[in-house]
Every structure is written in C-alpha cells, then in structure tokens.
Amino acid sequence: MTQDSAGNDSVYRIAIVDDNRKDAEQLKGLVEKYFAGSPKKRYAVSLYQNSSALIWDLDDRKQFDIYFLDVEMPEQASGLELAYKIRIYCMEAIIIYVTNYVKYAPQAFEVNAFRYIPKRLLGEKLDEALDCILPRIEQQDQRTYVIEMQGRLERILYKNIVYISKAGKYVTIHHRDGESRERKSLSRIMDALQAPEFVYIDKGYIVNIQHIDSLQKECILLKNGTELKISRSKYRDVKEKAAGYWRGLR
Hints:
Blueprint (H helix, E strand, L loop, with lengths): L1 E2 L5 E9 L3 H16 L5 E7 L2 H9 L6 E4 L9 H11 L4 E6 L5 H4 L6 E4 L3 H17 L5 E6 L2 E6 L3 E7 L2 E6 L2 E5 L3 H8 L4 E5 L2 E4 L3 E4 L3 E4 L4 E3 L2 H17 L2
Parallel strand pairs: 2-3, 2-4, 4-5, 5-6
Antiparallel strand pairs: 1-2, 7-8, 9-10, 9-13, 10-11, 12-13, 14-15, 15-16
Helix pairs in contact: 1-5
C-alpha cells in the first residue's frame, strides 16, 4: 500500500495493462464496483494500453501495489515480459493475469503471479481475488526509518531505501522517491535500522540487499542502475550476507 498526499499508508495503487481499451475499461469498472462496497478503502487505478508506457513509469520510479496484465499484446512487450520488469523494481508487487489465452498459465507462475483469470470469468472471480490480495498487501513489510530534522518528521519504508551514503557530517538516504539528508553517523543509522538486509559495502556506504542486481569483487550494481564500489575487506562479508538473504526469500 502506498502513501497518500497526507503521508498515510492508505491508498491501494492499481495498474491495468491491456491493449484493448474496452477490456481495460471493463476491468476498471469491476474494480470500482468492488471498492464501492468498502468506502473506507481508498484506491487509484491507472490504465495502460501500451506496455512501454508502464515501463517508462517504472523507470521513473512509479510503482503500484497490484498489476493486472494481459498476457498477449501484439507488437509490444507481453504481460510475461512486463512481469520480469516489474519484479526488478518491486519483488513484493501483486501480479494478476487477466487474459483470453489460458495456454500461457504455466509461464505466468514462473514470475510468481498471484492469479490467472480468464476474461470471461472476471465478473465472478475478481472479488474473491481482491478479498485475498488486500489483507496480504496490508501485511507487507511496513517497517519505517524516521528522520527528525528541523522540526519535521519524515518516514521512509525500509523496503524503499536503496542505499545510504556519508559525506562530511551528513548522510544521504537514497530511496525510491528521491533523497533525504540527516546529520548523523552511519553507525547510528545502522544501529537504528537493525535489519539483516542492510550491509556495509565500504566505510562510507550502506546498501539494501533487496536492491542489489549483481555483485562483483570491485563493485555492486543496483537495480536502479547505480554502480557503487565495494572495498576488498567488505566483499566476502557482503557476498555471504547477500547470498544468505536471497536464499531465505525462496
């Protein structure tokens, strides 16, 4: 679940990707009907007829809690290809395939899809799927790091922190929504986080293992394209912690 403009984690953000506008609008209508029965639950739906538009938004750090994807979209990235892209940016996102092509079902579950719903069964299957999904989203990792500075408070979800860097008396927390600064030592931040996914790669950098794309002896490549140097003395420790963390996710 994502934050609204007031900073509350109360808006379910939903993306519908289908090159058939009529089908996309029909699904949107069913989603709206479902939420109309639960007026306290807030939501926002974005429609995409072109998979490239969603990819551009993902690259621009826009993310959703639920993705409804059509599998086969001629002359553009398919729903299966989109799922791999989504997983790069957000492992915890819920993916639901809504399609006429049942033959692709086995491949859909290779990307850990939550449901595979034939379009002709949407009316009877969608409510049940959302009943299962929303509690799951609410239970997802909501640990937050709080910055208190100059009379203001800022909350950053652990899972959104990409890495933390030190420069002089300040640290910069690089996260999915931008950057935040705080006058504090890296060691104090690490003590406050107390989470296995955060690891030193150098005396001036802490990285969130969840955002590592690849690890080499001299550098780390993050999923957002950032490349950071890793000190020789830290390489073995980072490699072991990353491997252990990833194995624990299986």
